[in-house]
Amino acid sequence: MLSRSSEVISFARAFLEPLAVYTLLSEKITLVDLAFDARVNEVYTLAEAAYQVHLNDYKIAAIPPALTYGPVVMGWREKRVAESATYWWQGLTRGRLDPAIETCIHRDAGRLTTVAEFENRYLELFEAPQDSRSKSLGLFCNPLYNFRPEDRPVFWRMLMCQLLIYRRISARSRLPEGIKVSHRFSFDMRDIDTIQRAGEIKDDLLESSLNVALQYSSGLLGGK
């Protein structure tokens, strides 16, 4: 299920790294920590939300304008070739997501794996397709294979949701603790310009995915 593509390996690590940071943080942070510093609480809440995006593919697909999405059906292997937007699985279960994240964690050292360490682990699992960790990592990478927004519209929406969340984490981390910020999310127009300049996504698909991401994120911090 895995691919030796250097692009897939690179993107897999890029997507797994912040989730691995969240995993390590969640094992150390306490309710006292979260109650003491509102900024830490917000960043942690957002990091958890980024994790949840991978589990909420059906929810994100159903946000208006709803997408037709049903990858768990009889004959999915054949159907996903003919209609990948509908039948290609673009999310994960927690039972597959957590083992995939572990490939980006060096447990003995209590840190993230280096780029080289991750690549070595990935290639070891590539050679061991029957290993359950290989299957979990393969499923995590599944939406990346031959990715195009129109062929993986749910995953594209998920990426836009994560773009909002990670940008907010970055901005909030730089602000002093006492600064109050709105619960409303907004896109950085520089990001939108970058996507548009790539010229590989239709305007209507881009617009709908941005609107969906804003709807999805609207209640993440408890406000509208």
Plain-language structure description:
With 224 residues, the protein is mostly helical. Helix content is 62%, strand content 2%. The protein has helices at 6-26, 31-36, 38-53, 57-62, 76-82, 84-87, 94-102, 115-126, 132-141, 153-174, 189-198, 203-217, and strands at 105-106, 111-112. Strands 1-2 form a two-stranded antiparallel ribbon. α7 crosses α9. The termini are far apart.
Average residue pLDDT: 91
Major β-sheet annotation: 2 strands, antiparallel
Radius of gyration: 18 Å
Work out the count of structural domains: 1
What's the arrangement of secondary structure elements?
Blueprint: H1 6-26, H2 31-36, H3 38-53, H4 57-62, H5 76-82, H6 84-87, H7 94-102, E1 105-106, E2 111-112, H8 115-126, H9 132-141, H10 153-174, H11 189-198, H12 203-217
Helix pairs in contact: 1-3, 3-10, 7-9, 10-12
Summarize the structure.
The protein has 224 residues and is mainly alpha-helical.
What distinguishing features does this structure have?
mainly alpha; globular; two-stranded antiparallel sheet; 12 helices; single chain; 224 residues
